[in-house]
Design a protein that fits this description.
Length: 152
């Protein structure tokens, strides 16, 4: 993993991004209830979708959203999804993707990045988000964790 880079999702990378295989048990955590309910409130124009490439291989994908005027705090500057191939997990791909999204948020003058995830179990993304600096500030009405990464 020496040649990691972020690129916009494109026709040439979409199939690989959509076929990323997670570790068994992780699929249940791909979309927390809060995001499933809020999906209709997300403007397609606010999405920031990138693939993580290692050389020419797609090893991850991150989807963020930037919508400072959204009524839902969870959706103003947020990680919507981060997926890393099972074979690439534990090698810094997810951290690299989150840092890329955080850099984009900073370039837009934002002071924090948020994420919502379902807590629980070894397969939950909780340990990952804590390791990259997110702190849980509350639970959503659906029992998901709402966590914040301060950017300043």
């Amino acid at each position: 993993m020496t040649d990691l880079r972020l690129e916009e999702l494109s026709a040439s990378t979409a199939a690989a991004a959509n076929s990323l295989t997670l570790k068994p048990g992780q699929e249940q955590f791909v979309q927390p209830t809060t995001y499933g309910v809020a999906e209709s409130d997300v403007k397609p124009s606010s999405a920031w979708t990138r693939v993580v490439l290692d050389g020419d291989e797609v090893v991850g994908m991150i989807i963020g959203t930037f919508d400072e005027d959204n009524a839902e705090e969870e959706l103003r500057s947020a990680i919507w999804r981060v997926n890393v191939s099972a074979t690439a997990q534990g090698r810094g791909v997810g951290r690299f993707a989150v840092h890329g999204l955080a850099d984009e948020a900073r370039s837009r003058g934002l002071e924090r990045l948020t994420v919502v995830y379902e807590p629980g179990g070894d397969d939950s993304p909780e340990a990952f988000f804590r390791a990259v600096g997110f702190e849980v500030v509350r639970e959503t009405q659906y029992g998901d964790h709402f966590a914040v990464l301060q950017l300043v």
